[in-house]
Amino acid sequence: MAAAHPTIRKVWVNGGYRQHLVEHAATLGIDMEIVQRAPGTRGFTPLPKRWTVERTYGWLMFHRRLARDYETLPARSEAMIHLAMTDLMARRLTNEATISWRDPTPRD
């Protein structure tokens, strides 16, 4: 990741990552922070940074082509993500309701 994206300086990762990966990221100039649940927590609890990512995935799933993973080339998937996020931003700027492929009737 450091070679492909040299401007990345901080990443948040799941609790499954180990300390040796944090140390390796530090040698590359990347601050890797492990996001973990609070000790003793039971059931569902949204994790601060992870929740942001999961919410974004949810927004992307409103676009059927991304929800079904039809693309065979990573570049096409990336292009579809750019289109989906552009659509999301345009709808927010114009206060237009988001029409979902899951909803049989359009919202007014």
Question: How is this structure best described in words?
Answer:
This protein has 108 residues and is mainly α. The chain has helices spanning 19-27, 48-60, 64-67, 74-94; strands at 10-13, 31-34. It is extended, with a radius of gyration of 18 Å. The mean pLDDT is 80.
Key features of this structure:
single chain, extended, two-stranded parallel sheet, mainly alpha, 2 strands, 108 residues
User: Beta fraction of the residues?
Assistant: 5-15%
Radius of gyration, CA atoms, in whole angstroms: 18 Å
Average pLDDT number = 80
What's the helix-strand series? EHEHHH
Number of strands: 2
The portion of residues assigned to helices is 40-55%
* Spans where pLDDT lies below 50 across 5 or more residues: none
